[in-house]
Amino acid sequence: MMEYSTTIAELSIYGYACSHLTRPKLIPKFMFGQKFVFSVVALIVVSLIGWLGLTQLRTHSAPPTVKIGLVAPFEGLYRATGYEVLFAVKLAIQERNRGQGLHGYRVELVALNDFNDPLEAEKQARALVADPDIVGVVGHLTAETTQQALPVYQQAGLAVSIPWSVAETAFESETSGFVSVAATVEETQTELQATVQSLGIDKVVTLTDHEVDVSLNPQQAVELASNAVTAGRILLTLPTSAAGTHFRFGQVETGNLQLVQVAGGVANGFIFVSPGPTAAEAPGGVAFSQAYQALSGLSPGPRAIMAYDATHVLLDAIEQATANSSEWLASSPSRAEVSAVIPQIQRVGLSGEIHFSPAGQRFEAPVWLYQITNASYPGKSFYP
To answer: CA 85 → CA 104, 200, 244, 366, distances in Å?
Structure first.
């Protein structure tokens, strides 16, 4: 539209001159010479050259960029989980960067490793905060690492989109600027307890350490409240007869690829709760799975689904925070703008309808249950 207006203005100048040249009584004699005509033509030519130069600059100059961060375990025991999430985040960014990106902005990713360790998570959070070009973060992957890093992000006013369960206490802070696309730890635990009761089980022994009491009743139902590696070790040390029952349950952090890597076939029948679905159960999950596999060569698990949703929520916030979106050069979104907008984001993701409370907690967050089969994660859906 700007190019069209400029051309009309230039033609108006020429038309004005031509119309007045037909009225000799009103025009001084010195304006009838070749110099005047040459000046008008030169003005038009110069204007056209400038317009063409601006058009070429717009066409060939590199688009402006914004950066987002991702913190996940890319080394150590949980590296497979980190890369599962990494490819989901990259896919979401790839989709947004097609065409005009975020109102002309291209998105770049800075991915850092936290080993799934809370202290390292805080360290990497500080590294992201130190880069002024980063306007938002996706992460982290456990409740402990996320809550250790959140104060760092909040102090810097950096928006965070959390892809996995955190405790409800995370949403008690007066300063928000972050959201979680996943059900809280408490919400997943409520669903797990409802499942146990629906099976008619009156008593469950909760285990947090792989040193299992040898006096444990082999028929006793157990609930594992640990990370996936420890949970796998617990399953290997349970009384043999218990391994043949389906009364082994896991809280949200036990359901992970490492459980099967450690326990192997002993994990078969294990039931765990998850804040994310498999691609087969997600609306649009088939297309997502195909695109994900084309990018990574792997099949996506629940964490990939949730990381994909979390990334799109953050990108929505950045897009809304970008001012003057109809102009060629939109103003760069600030951290404060993205943080203010992110709790207001609403979208339909792979995990369903996503919208948040002002504190960033997802309303009516769904929860799923899975059962390990054929020594593979996540197994099949479990319906009591």
So the answer is: 26, 36, 33, 19
pLDDT in tens, 114-136: 999 999 999 999 999 999 999 99
Q: Which residues on neighbouring strands pair with residue 354, listed in sequence order?
A: 347
Write the pLDDT tens digit of every residue in 308-350. 999 999 999 999 998 544 444 456 789 999 999 999 999 999 9
- Under DSSP, the state recorded for 99 is T
Q: To which H or E segment does residue 291 belong?
A: helix 285-296
- Paired with 205 in beta bridges are 222
What's the CA gap between 150 and 339, in Å, rounded? 13
Contacts of 207 (CB under 8 A, 6+ apart): 222, 223, 224, 225, 226, 234
Mean pLDDT of the chain: 84
Select from 281, 280, 259 the least CA-distant residue to 270. Answer: 259
Read off the amino acid at residue 210.
H
Amino acid identity, residue 39? Answer: S
Alpha-carbon distances of 167 from 72, 148, 216, 331, rounded to whole Å: 18, 12, 30, 36
Residues 161-203 pLDDT 10s? 999 999 999 998 766 899 999 999 999 999 999 999 999 998 8
Q: With residue 208 as reference, give the H or E element that holds it.
A: none
Encoded amino acid at 289, one letter: S
Q: For 154, what's the count of Cα atoms within 13 Å in the CB-facing half-sphere? A: 18
- Closest by Cα among 323, 329, 317 to 158: 317
Residue 313 half-sphere exposure, CB side, CA atoms within 13 Å? Answer: 38
Packed helices 2-21 and 34-60: angle between N→C axes, nearest 10 degrees:
170
Angle, CA 60 vertex, CA 54 and CA 61 arms, to 5°: 80
What residues have CB less than 8 Å from 25, skipping those under 6 apart?
A: none
Q: Taking a C-beta distance cutoff of 8 angstroms, is the pair 47, 5 a contact?
A: no
Q: How does strand 248-250 pair with strand 271-274?
A: parallel
Q: CA 265, CA 318: separation in Å to the nearest integer?
A: 45
The values of phi and psi at residue 278, to 5°, are -80, 165
pLDDT for the residue 173: 76
Residue in 282, 286, 323 with CA at minimum distance from that of residue 302: 282
CB 88 within 8 A of CB 307: yes
Q: Distance (Å, rounded) from C-alpha 281 to C-alpha 292?
A: 16
Q: Assess contact for 279 and 285: CB atoms under 8 A.
A: yes
pTM of the prediction? 0.82
